[in-house]
């Protein structure tokens, strides 16, 4: 049995310890906001936050996540109130929407420490958007930075003309404790 906290809820998985966390979240916990993309660590679509850091859930087994605090797009905020989710909606970022949760989670983790990410920091993210929504994504990052500014501990240089890629989040506060003990 593998224990962890997912979106504030204690979870115990009775699955093979090698099960990718992505599959446990989606198939056992029904947290389908986290998307399946390349399954090779190349697209960022499956990004979640593990112990405060952005991680690719396709590359982590549930054994690796034992005892961790997991946040998925469903648990990022109540009512999609996170500045990034507000900005995504305001800038109408979504095209197909597949990359949105991964981008938002990667950016949410980054912007905790760096409310106004530099172009270099944005370019370093592994996230890809195949729909060409990058310009809107970048506008959303700038908007989210401004929304978050009053809360920012150490504002840094604003996003001006970054060359990166991003996208929105689904929100169905999920649950499911796939454990019958
Ligand atoms: S599905 Fe995990 S990086 Fe692409
Ligand atoms: S992959 Fe379709 S909106 Fe980014």
UniProtKB/TrEMBL annotation:
Residues 1-76 form the 2Fe-2S ferredoxin-type domain. GO terms for molecular function: 2 iron, 2 sulfur cluster binding; metal ion binding; oxidoreductase activity. Gene3D superfamilies: 3.10.20.30, [2Fe-2S]-binding domain. It comes from Sphingomonas xanthus. Keywords: 2Fe-2S, Iron, Iron-sulfur, Metal-binding, Oxidoreductase. Pfam families: Fer2, Fer2_2. This is (2Fe-2S)-binding protein. PANTHER family: BLR6218 PROTEIN, OXIDOREDUCTASE WITH IRON-SULFUR SUBUNIT. Residues 149-181 are annotated as: Disordered. Residues 161-175 have a biased composition (Polar residues). InterPro entries: 2Fe-2S-bd, 2Fe-2S-bd_dom_sf, 2Fe-2S_ferredoxin-like_sf, 2Fe-2S_ferredoxin-type, 2Fe2S_fd_BS, Beta-grasp_dom_sf, Diverse_Oxidoreductases. The keyword Transmembrane helix does not apply. CDD domains: fer2 (cd00207).
